[in-house]
Amino acid sequence: MAALRYLVVDDSPTVRLTIRQALRQESTPARMVSEAETAEEAITKFNAERPDVVFLDIDLTGGDLGPAEPGGRLDLLHPTADNHRDAPNVARYMLQKNAKLKIVVCTGNTTDDSRVRELIKLGAFHVLSKPVHLAQIREVLKDVRAEHDQMVDEPEEPSADRYQRGF
Q: What is the dihedral of CA 148, 149, 152, 153, to 10 degrees?
């Protein structure tokens, strides 16, 4: 079984460190974990590293994603002065590139934030409440791995054209 790749996106060094520690406790090799502090850095690292799991802070700060280009890397983000760092827009971009991506949302406002509800609608795998704790993260990691293993173990559905060729 191949090791999962992780991207930790949070402007808080403490949150990034806590998630990294949980990954280390779960025997995740350091080379399989990337970090980003800003939305721009997250998109760049996502494109370069191709993670399987992203821990995504709801409040993305810093960085300038620049103007959207039709068909370009930020076309889905519809950047404006206010929303170019919006976590749902970043998640949308990432999910368009990798529909199997597991996004773990990190937030201090689990119920009152419309962005959390939007990320859940987009298919966020889990929502972690801040402050994050090692035990919480390890439980999420266990769930991520269990689902990943289940996906790997399930046989692929035969395509429709295979059935048509036989008749």
A: -150
Task: Specify the CATH class of 6-165 in words.
Answer: alpha beta
User: Considering the entire predicted model, what is its pTM?
Assistant: 0.79
CB 95 within 8 A of CB 122: yes
pLDDT at 94: 95
Q: What's the CA gap between 105 and 138, in Å, rounded?
A: 15
| pLDDT tens digits, one per residue of 31-61 | 999 999 999 999 999 999 999 999 999 988 6
Q: Checking phi first, is residue 50 left (phi over 0); if not, alpha (psi -120 to 50) or beta?
A: left
Is residue 115 within 8 A of residue 127, CB to CB? The reply is no
Which candidate, 51, 60, 80, 59, places its Cα nearest to that of 68?
80
